[in-house]
Design a protein that fits this description.
The protein is mostly helical. The protein contains 23 helices and two strands. The protein has helices at residues 2-8, 18-25, 36-54, 63-75, 77-81, 104-130, 135-151, 158-176, 183-214, 219-227, 234-251, 261-267, 270-295, 300-323, 332-359, 364-399, 411-414, 416-430, 436-451, 455-480, 485-493, 510-528, 532-536, and strands at 86-90, 98-102. Strands 1-2 form a two-stranded antiparallel ribbon. α4 runs parallel beside α7 and α19 runs antiparallel to α20. The protein is globular and about 75 Å long. Residues 1-25 and 487-503 have low confidence and may be disordered.
């Protein structure tokens, strides 16, 4: 035993073998608490898919509630991470360069993504049953897309960011085309897939250009590398910057990468359209925010003016198209919300464009913080009220497959609470009281444009806000108008004691009622304390 111990003992002064040093230097620590929110959602998706193989048809009805509970559980670690500011998958060279950061910005956006995913699950429960969608596959795809979208705001290098965006996108293609036998659904999924794949390919090409110029894929390294790059590679770096932003502009439905939005929203089941309008947009805006503020802040002169022009064109094109929607057109409600989401994307770009002149100044961190606060405040408002509007649309779609705007006439007579909720959501999107949070978010964005010398963009935004008032208020007015005589007569003919003035509508399904109630409560809470979102995002960037 003594000889064996002597043989296995390494003297204190003996050098460590070089292969061992290399192995130790390549090991990255993993903080499981930091990555738990997207990880729990992803594992739950796999568990639901496997459970679907063994459950009988009656038992598969439980997969929806299980998915909702899984998203609630995945959001619980956010409470523990709130005061810790953790990072993981870091380089072992003590440079604090990490691929994943659970800072305040990431946590707030992950809360929005997981909360929107939870509301989407509630909206989907009646749709899965009514449309006879395959339950296991649907819930697996929805949870997987939510996990990918939750990973986006925590990513701090290009590889992780692109993988996260694709993890959010690939399941969405299948969700859009899941209605078997529907030609519109198949066409929407194909258009969405082809345009998204093209945008991803362009983004990867831009990332390869950036790596060639800077020699790194980490955001901070790219930002530093672009400032000290060889002058001969300056054009290549600028091209890489522009191409990399394309994929995220596509997900955020920024003009001219918006052409897939109306047909995809109409062809998809209504809950999937709601998911794309909030979770997909949050993923795209989060990616743009991280790239512009952290990776490309040193080259703000390249993207600042271009982004301001894109913001102006996007909000104008979206609002102009929404204004043209007729009340008697099939799927007019979903189309209006689709074009409205394009216009809202233009508003979300304004703080990013306004922060560009200060990125290279004496206080780039202050400019970034202002950008984060205004952008996230608007995202939270938009996410809550847009999901609420889609919840009411999902209810109407159960009794009216065409889902025209005219189908909402007389909604107040049939479902007063749903009508009041829809009116509140639309007024929030319009920026009118009692939707105080909508007004506050628009004022916050408007002030960033004025305060940073973009008065012309503020004027265009003000004009677009006024234009948007028309179609939001027109829809709101329809909700409170008396039903048409023939509709009222048909309702009376159905019997069951229905009043002659109320249209024949089914009762609101409990999951839809819960979705409407939760989103309305979120909108009211934010309206009562609109500065809450700015407080939450303080210190969001490290």
């Amino acid at each position: 035993m003594t000889l064996l111990a002597q043989a296995l003992t390494v003297p204190a002064a003996a050098p460590v073998p070089q292969p061992l040093l290399l192995a130790e230097s390549s090991v990255q620590s993993v903080d499981w608490l930091a990555i738990s929110p997207p990880t729990i959602a992803a594992v739950a998706g796999l568990a639901v898919l496997v459970a679907d193989l063994f459950l009988p048809e009656r038992g598969k009805r439980l997969l929806g509630p299980v998915s909702a509970v899984a998203l609630l559980i995945s959001a619980l670690p956010l409470l523990l991470l709130r005061t810790r500011d953790l990072a993981t998958f870091c380089l072992p060279d003590r440079s604090h360069t990490c691929s994943y950061s659970a800072d305040t910005l990431a946590l707030v956006l992950q809360f929005l993504v997981l909360g929107a995913g939870f509301i989407t699950v509630l909206l989907s429960m009646p749709a899965v049953r009514d449309l006879r969608l395959p339950a296991g596959e649907y819930w697996f795809l929805l949870l997987s897309a939510t996990a990918g979208a939750a990973l986006v705001p925590a990513s701090r290098d290009l590889v992780t960011l692109v993988i996260a965006l694709e993890t959010a996108s690939l399941p969405a293609f299948a969700l859009v085309g899941m209605r078997h036998g529907s030609r519109g659904s198949a066409e929407a999924a194909l258009k969405f897939f082809l345009s998204s794949v093209t945008a991803t390919a362009v983004t990867l090409l831009g990332a390869s250009f950036l790596y060639a110029v800077t020699g790194t894929l980490y955001f901070r390294g790219i930002d530093e590398g672009l400032t000290r790059a060889d002058p001969q590679l300056e054009a290549l770096g600028g091209a890489g910057l522009a191409l990399t932003l394309v994929g995220f502009a596509f997900k955020a439905s920024v003009v001219p990468f918006h052409f897939w939005v109306p047909d995809t929203y109409v062809g998809a089941p209504v809950p999937v359209a709601a998911f794309l309008s909030v979770v997909g947009k949050t993923a795209g805006i989060s990616g743009l925010l991280l790239l512009l503020v952290q990776a490309f802040s040193s080259r703000a002169e390249l993207w600042g003016t271009a982004l301001a022009v894109l913001a102006a064109v996007t909000m104008t094109a979206g609002n102009a198209a929404a204004l043209r929607q007729r009340t008697d057109r099939a799927h007019g409600a979903v189309r209006l919300l689709a074009w409205s989401s394009v216009g809202q994307a233009g508003y979300l770009l304004v703080p990013l464009a306004a922060a560009a002149p200060d990125m290279g100044g004496t206080d780039p961190a202050g400019a970034a913080l202002s950008t984060v606060g205004a952008t996230v405040a608007y995202l939270l408002m938009y996410g809550a009220v847009n999901l609420g509007a889609f919840a009411v649309v999902a209810h109407i779609s159960r009794s009216s497959a065409a889902n025209r705007l005219s189908d909402y006439r007389g909604l107040y007579a049939a479902h007063p609470v749903a009508a009041l909720a829809l009116a509140f959501f639309l007024l929030c999107l319009a920026g009118l009281p009692p939707g105080v949070i909508g007004l506050f978010a628009k004022v916050a964005i408007f002030s960033t444009a004025v305060g940073n010398g973009l008065g012309w963009l503020a004027v265009i935004m003000a004009v677009n806000v006024v234009v948007a008032l028309f179609y939001y208020l027109r829809w709101t007015a329809l909700v409170f108008r008396a039903p048409l005589p023939e509709t009222a007569g048909a309702a009376a003919a159905t019997g069951a004691g229905a009043p002659a003035s109320a249209p024949a509508r089914p009762r609101i399904a409990p999951p839809l009622a819960a979705g409407i109630a939760l989103t309305a409560a979120a909108g009211i809470a934010l309206s009562l304390d609109p500065e809450l979102v700015l407080t939450l995002t303080a210190g969001g960037l490290r």
